[in-house]
Amino acid sequence: MALARYLGRKVAWTLVVLVVALVLNFLLPRLIPGNPVDAIVGQVAAGGGTGGEQLQQVHEHFMQEFGLDKPMWQQFLVYVGNVLQGDFGTSFGQYPASVNTLIGQALPWSIAIQLPAIIVGWVLGNLLGALAAFKGGWFDRGAFVGSLFFSSVPPFALAIILLFLVAVQLGALPVGGAYSFGLSPELSLTFFGDAITYFWLPFWSLVLVFIGGQAVGMRSMAIYELGSDYVNYNRGLGVRDGMTVRYIFRNAMLPQITGLALSIAALISGGLITELVFSYPGLGTLLFTAIGQNDYPVIQAITLLITLAVLIANFAVDILTGFIDPRIRAAQSGER
Amino acid sequence: MSLRGLTPRFWVSATLVAFVVLVGLVGPFIVSAAPDDTVGGLYDRPQCCGTLLLGTDNEGQSVIANLAYGTRTSLIIGLLAGAFATVIGLLVGLVGGYRGGWIDDVLTAITNVGLAIPGIVVIILVSVSLPRRNLYTLALVIGLTAWFWVARAVRAQASSIRTREHIDVARLSGAGFWSILGRDVLPYLLSYVVMAGVLQVSGAILYESTLSLLGLGPGNATSLGTMLYWAIAWGSVRTGAWWAFVPPTLMLTLIVFGLLLLQSSLNEVFNPRLRRGRAARKKADKEGEVTEEPAAVVAEPEPVGATGMLETPTTGREHR
Amino acid sequence: MGTLVDARNIRGVYYTGAKDVVAVNDVSVKIEEGQVLGLAGESGSGKTTLGSIIALIARPPLHVEQGTLEIDGKVQELGGDAKVPRTWRGAVVSMLPQGAMNSISPTKRIRHLVYDVVRSHDRKVSKDEALDRARQRITTLGLPARVLDAYPHQLSGGMKQRTVTIISTLLNPRLLVADEPTSALDVTSQKILIEMLLEMLEKKIISGVIFVTHDLPVLRTVANKIAVMYQGRVVEMGPTEMMVDSPKHPYTQALMSSVLAPEPKYSKIRIEGMSSFDRSLFDAPAVIHR
Fold first, then answer.
1. Contact A151 B237 (CB under 8 A)
2. CA-angle at B273, arms to C54 and A317, nearest 5°
C-alpha cells in the first residue's frame, strides 16, 4: 500500500512538470517579435523555387495551423490538443514534410545508439567500479584515473578524437552517416552488417564516457559500503563473503540508480551532439538542421520529446528505487 | 587548511586550470593577429612560427589567434554564467532554507520543477527565441537555467543550520534577516559554495560549447564551441585538417577536466574523511593514512563528470 | 565451574602512517563458565580493541602481534599471520556491536540476515528451518515474531538492540563480546537488555559474556568480575564488589570515585578528577585478584 501511494505521488508530480514543460515549449518561441508566419514565408521564399501563389498557400496553411488570429490561450489549447493527438505540425524548413515524418525517420537511429549505450555503459561501469573497490592496489588506481578522465571529457570531444584517430587516420571505421551510400534501410542481414560498422564509433564515444562516470561513482559507493557497520557485523558473525557482497551491492546500487536518472538529461544531450559529429541521421542532426533553418515546429517537437524521455526515465528510476529501498517508500508515505 | 593538506590531485588540477586561464588571459596579447584577420587560405597547414603556428581555418583565419580569443570567450561565459548560477542558487537556497514557511514551499516547488525539466531543453528554446545572441545574453541564459541544484543543496544545509544555537543568539541580539544570513549562516556554507561554483563554471563552459556546436553560439565572438562548429560544418575532421578541431577540443577537455578534478580535490581537502585510506585493505600498510574526524562535515556536490552536465544535486549520500 | 575462556598475552597495535599505537599491551584475562566479565576504562584505554581482538574481528590497521585464545580447550593463535577460521566467528565467539542501528543492512529484512548467518555455518540447513529456529528463540526471549519480517528502520532502538542480541547468539556461541551495548539506550531499554543477557546465560544459550563499557553503574548490576584498563593494560581485575567497594590500584580508585551515586553513604565522598595521562598511575603495578 505504501508503494501505491508513493507511485501516485510520482505520477501527479510528473504530470505537473509536463504541463510546465508544455507551456515553456509553447511560449518561448512565440516571444520572438513579429509575425512568425511572415518570417517563415520569407524563408521559404528565400529558399527559392516557390512562386507567389504557392507562397500564399504556405502562408494560409501556417496561419491556420498556428491560429495566430486567435488569442494566446486558445492557441495554447490548439497546441496541446495537437500534441496529445501526436500531431506536431508541419516543418518550416522542409515544407511540406510533416514534423512527424521527419522525427519518425530520425528517432530510431537515435534510440539505436543511445539505449544500448546507456544500458551497456551502466552495467560495465558499475562492474568496473565495484571491481576496482574490491581489488584495490594498482588496478584500482588505474581504473579510477582512467574513469575520471573519461567521465570528465565532454562527450563530443571524445567523439571528435575517436573519429579522427580511428576513422580518418586509421581508416578502420567509416567517417560519417549511418549506412553506406546506395543502400537503403531494410531488415536484412546485409544492411545490418553494413550499418553496424557505422554504429561502432558513435556508440563507443557514448559508452566510454558513461562507463567512466558510473565506475567513479560505484567505486566510491562500494568503498563507503565496505567500511560500514553491517559489513563488519556480518564478518563478526562468520557470514560468508559472497553473501555479504550481495548486501553491499544492493546498498551501493541505490545512489547509482538515482544518479542514472539525474544523468539521463546529460546523456541524451551528449548523444545528440555526438550524432552531429558523426553526421548520424538521428535527432541530433535533425535538431542541428532545424536550428539552422529556424524550423520551430521541428525544434519544439524535439525539445518536447527530450523532456518526455527525461521525465519517463526519471519516473522509471523512481519506481525502481521505491522497490529496492524500503526506506524511501516509508519516508514518502509518511510512515514513521 | 594548511598547504600540506593539499593533495597532489589539487596541484595537478590547479595547474591545468591555470594553464587554460593563462591562454585566455594572456594569449590574445601575445598573438599578433586578430581572430577575424585573413592570414591564409582554406585550411593551410601549420608552419612555424607566429600566426600560422596552428594553420588556418575554413575562412583563412589564424587558428592560434582564434584559439586564444576563443578560450577567453569561453572562459568569460563560463565564469559569468557560473557565478550567476551559483549566486542565484545560493540566494534562493538561503532564503528558502532559513525562512521556512510558505516562501520555502514556493521556492522549493520552483526548484523542483526546474530540476525536473532538462536544462538543455530550456536553453535551446530560449536561445532559439532570442533576437540576438551575444556573449552576455548567452551567459545570462545559461546562468538562469543552471542554478536549481545549488538551491536545493543550500536549502538543505541552511535549514539545518537554522536550528543551531548561535542563530538564536543572533536573533535575540536583534540582528536583521539579511545580517544573520550573511554573517551567521553563510560562513558555514562557504566551502560548499566554492565547490559548487567550480562545478557551475565547468558546466557553463560545457553548455556554451554544446550550444555553439548546435549553431546557437554567440553571434559576434569566437568561442571554443564555435570553432568546433565551423570545423565540423566544413568537414575538417573528414579531410584530416586536424589543426582546425584538435586545439579547441583539447582546450575544452583540459578546462572541463581540470575544473572537475579541482572540485574533487577540494572535496577531499574539505572532507578529509573521504580520502581513501586504503590502509584498511593493503597488506603492507606502513604507508596507510589515518582517517581522522573532520571538524565540520561539509556536504559535497556529486559531480557525475561531463555526463552529469551539472544536472546533479547532492542526493548521493542523503540516504545515510 | 571451569574456565571458559583463557586469553593470554594479547598485544594489539594500530599501524598508522605516523607511528604505531599500542592499544593493547600484553593483556591476559580469564572468564569462568557462566560469568560476565566487565571491561571498564576511559576512552582510549584499549577496552574496545581488546574486545574486538577476542571477538576475532580485528583487522588492519589493527594488528594482533601476539596472543592466544583458549576456549573450551580449543586453542587459537591470534598473533602474527595466524588464520582465524571463519566458522569460529558467530559460533564459538560472537560479537554484539555498539550501535545496533547500522549493524543490519537497511535494505533487507531481518530474516535475510538470519538465513545468511545460519547457512554460512551449515549449508544443509534450509531457510524454513533457520527461520523456525530464530522464531523460537525470539519468542522465548520475549520479542514478537513479526520482528523477523521487518526492515531495520521499522524497529525502535531498543528493539533493534535486542534483535541484534538474538541474532548474535543464534548459533549458541560460547562467548559473547558485547561492545557498549547499553550506551545508546534509555534506562528502561538498558534494563531489558541486561535482563535478556542474564536470561541467555541462565538458559545456557551463551556461556560467558565480556561486557565492554565505560558505564560503571551498569557493570555493577551485570558483571561478576571487573577488569579495569588504562592505556592498554589491565591495572586491576577482581570480583565486582571488591572492585567497587575497595579498589586497590590508584587508577581504579580514581575511576570509582568519579562515579556519582545517589546512595547516602556516598554523599560525603568528594569527586576527584585526574589529569589526562598520569605517569604514576601508569607505572603503579597491576593488582589482579583471582
1. no
2. 100
